[in-house]
Amino acid sequence: GRPVGTGGGRAGSTAATGQVEMAVHVLGPLSVTVNGRLVRGWGTRPRSLLAYLVIHRADLPPREVVTEALWPRADLPAARNNIQVAVYGARRALREAVDRQVIVFERGVYRLAADVMVSIDLDAFEGHVQAGQRFADAARVEAAIAELEAAVALYRGDFLADARSEDWAVLRREQLRLAYLDALDRLSSLYLETGQYSVCALLCRQILERDPCREDAHRRLMRSYARQGQPHLALLQFRTCIDILARELRVAPGPATARLHERIRRHEPV
């Protein structure tokens, strides 16, 4: 995968070939550009509908599946009306960017038109994560770092961060949040291995901002501080770890964390 651009400056070439280029960002708030033009002025439901159709563009779910996902508690007549209103709003907003029908309805299925070429940051993110894992497993450290850095850079926020009330997005949001934390985790481990302790510490703090109970991240941060000649910060981090685990999970740090604390306290190498 490659980082997704906005397609800026390509409008002329796409117009000539008859293709519509749509770049969609779903990591963070939804952002859509069509032939380099940012789509604006559309409501929550049209945005959610387009996001759903883009995410499920390979599955081509029937209209009933889409309505059930977006309006799970609506009766059939209300759901059908809702989807028609949402499709109308999405088409109207998209027409501001391109004078073509982007969303079509055929044989009971709403989908993107065949000439719409979609690039999505989600695909690029997952591609970089997978490549980073492959390189790390093959001990190709520099290549792994480059791929994982690219993945982390694409994660501008949680999946569809401006659509928190959408039930259909909840599971995917949590899966991607964990994938992002795992990418940060692996990347920080690689930086620790290669002696880049300040970057490792920065990434560990990012992990702990989102998931303060990750004990392995606390340990890696303690090691980074100790190896930078800042044992006092490492010991403070241990106190932070104790407090957070007691408050959030009502547990004490594990033996590995306690042993690491003891080694740092005695000024032994870690």
CA distance, first residue to last residue: 37 Å
Q: By CATH's scheme, which homologous superfamily of the domain at 11-120 applies? A: Winged helix-like DNA-binding domain superfamily/Winged helix DNA-binding domain
CATH architecture of the domain at 11-120: Orthogonal Bundle
Mean pLDDT: 93
- What portion of residues is helical? 55-70%
Structural class: alpha+beta
The level 1 CATH classification of the domain at 11-120 is: Mainly Alpha
H-E order = HEEEHHHEEEHHHHHHH
Count of alpha/pi helices: 11
Provide the low-confidence segments as ranges.
1-16
- CATH level-3 fold name of the domain at 11-120: Arc Repressor Mutant, subunit A
Please count the beta strands (DSSP E, at least 2 residues each).
6
Basic shape: elongated
Major sheet size, sense and barrel closure: 4 strands, mixed
How are the SSEs placed, and which strands pair?
Blueprint: H1 11-17, E1 20-25, E2 31-34, E3 37-38, H2 44-55, H3 63-70, H4 76-95, E4 103-106, E5 109-112, E6 116-120, H5 121-137, H6 141-154, H7 167-193, H8 197-210, H9 215-227, H10 231-248, H11 255-265
Parallel strand pairs: 1-6
Antiparallel strand pairs: 1-2, 2-3, 4-5
Helix pairs in contact: 2-4, 3-4, 5-6, 5-7, 6-7, 7-8, 7-9, 8-9, 9-10, 9-11, 10-11
